[in-house]
Design goal:
By secondary structure, this protein is of the alpha/beta class. Helix content is 58%, strand content 10%. The chain folds into 3 domains: 135 residues, Rossmann fold, CATH 3.40.50; 64 residues, Helicase, Ruva Protein, domain 3 (Orthogonal Bundle); 130 residues, Zinc Finger, Delta Prime, domain 3.
């Protein structure tokens, strides 16, 4: 099998098939892509600290030097042993995809290709090339749903020997998600904050994960999805002035657009109006927010929603890579989406 389903990836990572040549880890959850790629890299047995054994490349630099990937793949290691070529930020660069296809058809000796990519459309480009080859395998990475998020919560605090109050669990569920690496970081921070305590309370969760309330999240997110620029400016300024962590805000925005994505798909499939789809939604849309969600659905197309999701995912990744820029990066991304929403009236 060259194409794993989302639910099969963790089992595969527990016991990877090391006979493959190319491993394509892709999806909208960039944090999860990165985390799983690191697990795969460790499973190869290649020394990741040895620059002769592990070659890390960016797809953008490969696009400007088309022959480099082929040269690296067929180069024999100076001191022998296996080699790992680790490519990040891959997309559907034609030259890069064509070279990977060539390598799959003519496998070099003692080398593995580990490729990280964003969301790739089924049946096209790089994803199709790897899935069609017996020498490659694809590992999709999608944002955590409620079940996987609860599993991550339970695993983190189970290892720490801590238990959660019901209110604390609900608060955590509402303030993380959308990016696995960011979620794991927030949970580990909370476990450390509550070190020595048997039960983690709601107050502990609030102090560690963010001092902004869910209402302030909603104020910002609602302004974003409905294109209310003045309200966005006021609520975002209040959020930033309070010294709040933008990561949970970005997670809340991602969850809202994921909900819009599901509801919009149902509208397009059934032909029903937004109000009818919202009334039948499971899980239900909270009654105080139904009017706002309905207004958003009437202006956002499915394509626009997915574009906004990708932008938010990229924003989370960028802010994780440079924490000093988290606030301006988050504000810029959310403002851009608010402007898009305003133009959709």
């Amino acid at each position: 099998m060259s194409e794993l389903k989302a639910g099969e990836v963790d089992r595969f990572l527990a016991k990877p098939d090391t006979s493959r040549l190319v491993y394509l880890v892709y999806g909208p959850d960039r944090g999860l892509v990165s985390e799983r790629a690191e697990r795969l890299a460790r499973s190869t047995g290649v020394d990741l600290s040895d620059t002769f054994s592990t070659i890390k490349l960016d797809a953008n630099e490969l696009a400007s030097d088309p022959v480099r990937l082929v040269d690296e793949a067929y180069t024999v290691a100076m001191f022998g042993g296996d080699r790992l070529i680790w490519i990040r930020n891959a997309g559907n660069h034609k030259d890069v995809s064509a070279n990977i296809e060539k390598i799959l058809k003519e496998p070099p000796d003692a080398v593995k290709l580990l490729v990280e990519a964003g969301d790739l459309k089924k049946g096209t480009g790089l994803r199709a090339i790897v899935e069609k080859s017996p020498n490659g395998i694809t590992l999709p990475c999608y944002a955590d749903n409620a079940q996987t998020l609860n599993g991550l919560i339970d695993a983190t605090f189970g290892e720490a020997g801590q238990r959660l109050s019901l209110d604390a669990r609900r608060y955590i569920q509402d303030h993380i998600g959308g990016d696995r690496r960011a979620s794991r970081g927030e949970l580990e921070k909370l476990a450390l904050y509550a070190h020595g305590e048997e039960e983690i309370t709601l107050d502990m969760a609030r102090q560690s994960i963010g001092d902004a309330s869910a209402v302030s999240f909603d104020e910002v997110v609602d302004a974003v999805i409905t294109g209310r620029l003045a309200d966005f400016d006021d609520s975002m300024q209040a959020f930033i002035s309070g010294g709040s962590n933008p990561q949970p805000l970005l997670a809340a925005a991602i969850r809202q657009f994921q909900q819009l994505d599901l509801l919009r798909a149902e509208m397009d499939k059934s032909g029903k109006p937004a109000g009818a789809v919202i009334a039948a939604a499971r899980p239900p849309v909270f009654f105080t927010r139904r009017k706002t969600v309905e207004q958003a659905l009437t202006r956002w197309t499915a394509q626009g929603i997915r574009h906004a999701l990708r932008r938010l995912q990229d924003c989370v990744l960028e802010s994780r890579m440079n924490s000093a820029l988290t606030v301006p990066v988050a504000r810029t991304a959310l403002l851009a989406i608010t402007i898009q929403s305003a133009r959709r009236r």
